[in-house]
Amino acid sequence: MDIEKLIGKVFDEVAEQIGPFEIENNAWELELDEGAEESFYVTTQSGELELKLNKDKIIQTIFLRPDAEGKFLLEPYQTETGRGEIRKAFGKPDASGEVILDKMFGDTYGYDRYQKEIVYHFEYQNIKQSQLKMITLMSLKSAP
Description:
It is built from three helices and eight strands; from the N terminus they run H-E-H-E-E-E-H-E-E-E-E. It is of the alpha+beta class and 144 residues long.
């Protein structure tokens, strides 16, 4: 499955490719009709893939978490991929964040963000930024 190409697709057209999933709101159709929600989340049963859909069921954002072996659905990335490898593949980031150690709010280990045909956001999980925690893919329109 070419994960990046899911951005902008209507969920119903690609649902079979995703496999077993759960929708955050059991009253999906009711909420769409009433307009109570602006977006919905769909998560695969494995938890490796989470999609944020707008009210028209268009995939706006994809959250990728590693599987039990540390691999992401976006190849060739795995938890052992670090900031150096990301920057070697993508170049200088359009935005980045550094390590913040905060006892009150919790530690964050930085990120790199790239605006290409879609937005790629790589979040690191250790102080050396030698491991990936999560990859987020977003449409250019929906990216904050």
